[in-house]
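Record ribose-5-phosphate isomerase, 236 aa.
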Amino acid sequence: SIPISACSLNTGTRLCLNPQNNYVVGVGSGSTIVYAVDRLAERVQQENLKIVCVPTSFQARQLILKHGLPLSDLDRHPELDVAIDGADEVDSSLTLIKGGGGCLTQEKIVADCARHFIVIADYRKDSKCLGQQWKKGIPVEVIPMAYVPIGRDITRRFGGEVVLRMGVSKAGPVVTDNSNFILDWKFEKVHNWKEVNMAIKMIPGVVETGLFIDMAERVYFGMQDGTVRIRDPPIH
Ligand SMILES: O=C[C@H](O)[C@H](O)[C@H](O)COP(=O)(O)O
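=>
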């Protein structure tokens, strides 16, 4: 539900989507990406474009099918021209927290296969440093039998608190599209995210983290006043 910035998100997706004939497009997950897929379908129809879409989740797959867009996968299209996705939080270096909807693993795989990874988000996702906006922590997808030792290991080494994500209308834990669990790590301070990401990924049983570092090429923020703010990675 992002009514205030819906108009700017539409504008943002107009700006960031420039699909060309024969493009392979990665389709992200969440509520914001719905705007992008609407625009994509519009452009494909208006310009009679031939594209194929690679989904990052069950939800994305349904979205692609609903719009009648050609569905593909990484078996057939391991190299994508562009992947477009939302984010839960974006810091000033374009480090992202993703996985609020539990789709982080497939999203990261698809983004990594794309020549360009573009993010669209509303202004509430914009922060100087991670943790200012998104209060639920960093999602970590884990193999179910290992969720307790992984959680203990993360808090022992990096502090904070780890919570097993529970279903809203389902009794028991959330189960991802890959049949795994999600731990939400509520960190207490700003870390060196590259180091933390690598360390967490090395814990046996960790499938993926929701930290997307040095991946996003550009972020389009839909602002409250209907404008669009663009952020590119800092030049080092
Ligand atoms: O797992 C979900 C994804 O990472 C989403 O892209 C992210 O949570 C942002 O979702 P929304 O656009 O609904 O805020």
